[in-house]
């Protein structure tokens, strides 16, 4: 098409495409252009955008339809845009306006492909218009037939930014223009679908909340009318939950339950469950913590003030607290969780102060203390709670402990972890493992509570009497501290400094009123109790003081008064009595109650077929020990001076007390000695105790629990003990006063025991089967 010379008007904030009728306000430049058009170019001018100081390459040829005033009263002109034109070089005059060469763009007849694109675009535009419910516009757009004209209706589209409109203006090719538009319109539709959805969601949730509020108010009114009251009660939960210091997730969950409660109404059984649950949640100390006292010297002082002796145990505890404090200081507890300090396991017989040490640790740190008894727990739900769907569901013991403690960082004593069982109701040990594992326990989930509970600040201390029944995985997480039991001197000191004052106070007596002599205490320790700890000791003192309180005060309790106050001694040295016949030897053993002595008895039965029977609830290992002992004796009969006929008789070996299950190889030397004593008819010396495994060749192999066994030997009044050579280093752990009271023979072959433990003078009678 031939180019024209036209006055040009650049507009900054609007892009006009062909086929539009618009009113523009006339500033000076616009006035000049419009004037020039009316006077010199047949009312035609070129309008082009100038966006961010960039001039467009194309504009539209527009004709001035009318000039007048806008509604605001300023000069304005009504323009109608026609064809696209390429802007050529600028030329001067006539008049004040700017003139350019404008070359109108020729439009080819549309191809079939272009028509297809146009149809597609038309559909998209109609969709957009439908969303806006612009029905009239839909009609006029639908009526447009020419693809180029259809594309240029985009000039009206409010969702296209000016720079996109300019791109359309500068794209004279119809097909390219339609492609651009199809893309952009699709995007717009997709976006507006999402935002529509958000809008509806928001609107719906607001409406729902309003509706719920209304319904709740109505419900309250109805309940009040029915005299069911308690609308205030549910309201109360809402305010309580809102006022409580709860983690966000917990508050949300609690409010959901309050909603349910409000809907459920009073008569609904569920209301009761929800209330109990809400009470539990509100009772938990979500935000309460105590501040740790990390002064290690002070810690040591507290431990010393609470407990006699136990130097090594206290040292280990102080070290443990020191490491913990340092880790915390360096922020290591939270990083990765794992390995942030194992759990202390206090292992030892009853009454040695495991529980009270736990209490002391809490006191040292200034933390709350709670004890969780695990003895006999077989149901996982005991630890982790029942699901709420259970009738009468309760939270587990851990949650209850935290509630009882009233702080999120108490000391929790897991008492008797060695007595946790498992059965069809799940494995409590596995749940415990989760409780103790720093990698998991910051989000511990109780079934009942069903909320994450952070246990990572809890200091767990476990206790156990024996180690071999603790599940391995649990044991691996723990740092073992053994407390083996007390010597007689220890017990007397503990009684004097701790048990006496406490029991006096309980009996409402004062130290001025009742004095207990050292001999009396020693007598109680030696002949009234035979325990590793001091539990019965304390009980007997309590019993004594109840009687003393009825006497004339002040009073002194001496050894002679004991019979009156607490009865006759219960334990007398029995070793000489028990070993008064051939075939009985005194062994040393460790049980859940601490160390103990054990008399192994052998006797010959009538008959000539040989053979061995064993009784006393022995485990497999112990039964094998008996076999080995007998085989050893048979193989060495000659050397030992045993006549072959003796070996023809069947032998019965018994380990009292028959009701207590026993196992382990450490009775090997005792069984061998009992057999030899029987077959030679020579008594075992009464003051002798022994422990050690025996091999078929008579080697004595090492055993465990040396300290506990020696304590027991001393308690039982023995004065000589045989120990395997490889256990010699264990003597370092044994208190010096125990070692002073015992002669310890270190042996590596059972012959050494047989050579010196039997009475040297034969009683002269050879026992044969009756
Ligand atoms: N070394 C000690 N010094 C002072 N008191 C002690 C000492 N050892 C134990 N006691 C006292 O002995 C009593 C029994 O101790 P505790 O109940 O802690 O024993 P335990 O080892 O936890 O037994 P269990 O295994 O049966 O739980 C407590 O009153 C405790 O204060």
TrEMBL record:
Enzyme Commission number(s) from the entry: 3.4.21.53
Family annotation (InterPro entries): AAA+_ATPase, ATPase_AAA_core, Lon_bac, Lon_bac/euk-typ, Lon_lid, Lon_proteolytic, Lon_Prtase, Lon_prtase_N
Induction: By heat shock.
Pfam families from the UniProt entry: AAA, Lon_C, Lon_lid, LON_substr_bdg
Lon N-terminal domain residues: 6-189
Compartment(s): Cytoplasm
Annotated ranges, domain Lon proteolytic: 579-760
Top class in the EC scheme: hydrolase
Superkingdom of source: Bacteria
GO cellular component: cytoplasm
Residues annotated as binding ATP: 348-355
Keywords in alphabetical order: ATP-binding, Cytoplasm, Hydrolase, Nucleotide-binding, Protease, Serine protease, Stress response
Protein's UniProt keywords contain Nucleotide-binding: yes
Gene Ontology molecular functions: ATP binding; ATP hydrolysis activity; ATP-dependent peptidase activity; sequence-specific DNA binding; serine-type endopeptidase activity
Biological processes per GO annotation: cellular response to heat; protein quality control for misfolded or incompletely synthesized proteins
Family named by the database record: Belongs to the peptidase S16 family.
HAMAP family linked to this entry: lon_bact
Quaternary structure note: Homohexamer. Organized in a ring with a central cavity.
Annotated protein name in UniProt: Lon protease
